[in-house]
Amino acid sequence: MECTLGVASLTMSEQATTLNLATAWEAVADAVGEQTVLAAGGRRTSWAEFDHRAACLAGTLQERGLDAGSKVALYCYNGVEYPEAQYAAFKLRCIPANVNYRYLGDELAYILDNSDAEALFFDHSLADRVDAVRDGFPELKALVQVGGVDTPSWAISYEEALAGPPMPRIDRSGSDLWFLYTGGTTGMPKAVMWSHDNLLANMAKTFASLGEVLPRTAGEVAAAATRISAGGSRIRQLCAAPLMHGTSGLSSLATLTHGGMLATLEQGSFDPDELWTVVESEKITMISIVGDAFARPMLDSLNRAAIADRSWDLSTLRLLLSSGVMFSAPVKAGLLGHHDCMIVDVLGSSEGTGMGSQVTSREARDAGTARFSLGEMARVFNDDGRDVVPGSGERGRLALGGPIPLGYYRDPEKTEETFPTIGGRRWSIPGDWAVVETDGSITLLGRGSACINTGGEKVYPEEVEEAIKEHPAVADCNVVGVPDERWGQAVAAVVEINDADRTTSDEEALKGHSRTLLAGYKVPKRILLVDRIHRGPNGKPDYRWAREVLEASS
């Protein structure tokens, strides 16, 4: 069975291995079937139930004509249905494709078209958006609604999809695929094609942290899951960040593969009080978040609780994992003041993880915001493809040598650009710029695509944002370039002030603060104070919104 990838026509048997995520999870279910794997809203699902429900969903997809290589779009919020539907797709050797639940009609239609989707799982609250575009996609063979009292005539309910007989287990390949759509902050979203081989290779550090070698066969997976469960060290992960985003999406795959547990929040919007309640009730050992967008409200919640002389039992929490957005040093310090755990700030992207990391705890001193240790397989290349010399001050682009994706689906030109061959090796270079310090660590500057050119000087928004956010009155900040007759572009900032500090902070005070931390040309020419910064559900900045707000107020 062939799967058209856009960069080449690869068969499902090419790069074949003995292990596939669905096959691995089946082995886990057989080994520790009584253990809880999913928890949401007080409802818990065992590994045996998880495997059976996914097999029933897979049987329904198969009965409706899906086969190996078919794409299954997931337009869902966090909940038990997301991992179940994803597992079902894997069982059938289909390719799951994440869809941002914030997307409206045209954006949804783009993903359905770009991914060649043949099935769509969607939340009942999004049914109107699906109805508005579905006629344009006659190739959709299965439309499955999650939740809701009434199901449209053109769809089947999730419970109906579960009612059919389970699909028998089959042989699979490590070359099967998983699509991770980028956020589209600098253009239309692109599907990053990850093979199961490389997804599994990314899990080596997770298994090592549990005292295990990365398994290569289903038998080894079952044995590792049994030992980890017996030792009481399996990860109980709270996916605070959306599963449709890479931070929770990628890390949750590793948690499942060693027999761990995934928990999600029930509220439609992020509620930090609910988060800490779930940490206590489900004995969570690890939380996955996206930088300050999640961490600041979490810290505020703990501060409020301390003032009210109440607290949650956080004794099981060992790891706070973040990636995707800057995680500032003061917020980390505040969280550690309430509970000592390991905070791991991972530098990576949809196109590759492991570019760098920063580990902080009460014992391990924070190296500062945007300062990372370079990953084992990562380098920093200048425009000539040479390594940036430590301490030289030269800017370079972060590059990852493996494990990396196959490329972008249906976009060979962008694949060639982002995954070039340098020195005989294929690299992932998504566009993050950094400086290599004398000690070999790196200071992240930001994405070149968002870089501001002001009078010939390059300014990276993230650097300015983090400087402004060090002011105690600042809750959040977005920095963009706006047209300027003299400089070409001028640095401008949209700033959200803490409620308690609204009368004590103004534009000039924030500019003065910025001048103590930044070169003069990096200090915003204009700062606009707003009630609330707009971010995506994955916590990433919405620079388009920031520009529109600045233009509307000028």
Structural overview:
It is a single chain. The protein is an alpha/beta fold and 554 residues long. Among the domains are: 21-195, 3-Layer(aba) Sandwich (Rossmann fold); 371-448, Luciferase, Domain 3 (Luciferase, domain 3), CATH 2.30.38; 451-553, ANL, C-terminal domain (GMP Synthetase, Chain A, domain 3), CATH 3.30.300. Helix content is 31%, strand content 26%. The protein contains 17 helices and 30 strands. It has a 13-stranded mixed β-sheet, sandwiched between helices. The protein has a 5-stranded parallel β-sheet with strand order 6-5-7-8-9. The protein has a 3-stranded antiparallel β-sheet with strand order 10-11-21. Helix 13 links the parallel strand 15 (319-323) and strand 16. Helix 4 (105-115) packs across helix 5, helix 11 packs across helix 12 (291-307) and helix 12 packs parallel to helix 13. The chain starts with a strand and ends with a helix.
Largest sheet: spatial strand order? 4-3-13-12-14-15-16-17-18-25-24-20-19
Quaternary arrangement of the chains shown?
A: single chain
In round numbers, the mean pLDDT is: 92
Distance between the termini: 57 Å
Sheet/helix structural class: alpha/beta
What is the top-level CATH class of one domain?
Alpha Beta
Q: Predict the CATH topology of one domain.
A: Rossmann fold
Number of helices: 17
Tell me, briefly, the overall form. globular
Strand content: 25-35%
Low-confidence region ranges: 1-17
By CATH, the architecture of one domain is named 3-Layer(aba) Sandwich
Quick one: how many beta strands? 30
